[in-house]
Amino acid sequence: MVTVLDTIANAPRLRHPEKAHKPDQEVLRKPDWIRVKAPVSKGYAETREIVKSHKLVTVCEEAGCPNIGECWEKKHATFMIMGEICTRACAFCNVATGIPTALDPDEPARVAHAVKQMGLSHVVITSVDRDDLADGGAQHFADVIRAIRAATPSTTIEILTPDFLRKDGALEIVVAAKPDVFNHNLETVPSNYLKVRPGARYFHSIRLLQRVKELDPSIFTKSGIMVGLGEERNEILQLMDDLRTANVDFMTIGQYLQPSKKHHPVIRFVTPEEFKSFETIGRTKGFLLVASSPLTRSSHHAGDDFARLRAAREVQLQKSV
């Protein structure tokens, strides 16, 4: 039987999915509200040096995040563990696809040292998908969490994980390490999964988030989507309901930006007014927090958002007394 890993093993390393769109496909012009300044600050350079000196990978660079200048100027970075090669080939993502390297046992300590050197009060840890590993990298996530706790006990930790599809017991390993926030992104509405996120399963991701709450209700749960991929408004509202059914606390919504002509095209640029309406609707549906704007990304302003999450939970608890 040919497996996903067999297919990956016979494929070259790619900077884009095999399911490429035509190179001559028209690329929509970015509106003014999506434009950002190039990173040139002293703080940006200092953050870059810390990342490089610790031989670490960041999703800020690998995914071409538009907020890298703003975040790195403030010495905020999202560390991407377990290498820079992913076993999935999502049509929206700029991370390389191919055969991953072996896990680095020293990486947790290096991440923890970088977090301490940068003086981070809140840190976000994400990873590539590692379908090649028996536990999908769950133990490595747990090792990183515990290393940060040992180095800087006051730092709050947010993780953005893969879906651990067909990895029995993996989620339990990560939850036992007690991150403060467990984030797993749905990325898009279910009707887009076959063309945008073909290696994933929508309802598995919903169940993953629900299971986190069942295992440890004290952990905040979070998920995010991109818009502009051809989804309908009513599909977004249904997705919100699905997340609330899973007791997800926090939702992020941001504009999809096409990394290259070979990736899924931007079908349209959603206006700031529409993003604001999604935020309002999400709050009425019961999320503790909704971040919705063209430049919203999973880890953008994560530290400030965590403080807002805690405050919102306190208000909720007081109302329930």
Automatic annotation (TrEMBL):
Binds 2 [4Fe-4S] clusters per subunit. One cluster is coordinated with 3 cysteines and an exchangeable S-adenosyl-L-methionine. The gene is lipA. Residues 72-288 form the Radical SAM core domain. The lineage of its organism: Bacteria, Pseudomonadati, Pseudomonadota, Alphaproteobacteria, Hyphomicrobiales. CDD domains: Radical_SAM. Its cofactor is [4Fe-4S] cluster. This is Lipoyl synthase. GO terms for molecular function: lipoate synthase activity. Pfam families: LIAS_N (PF16881), Radical_SAM (PF04055).
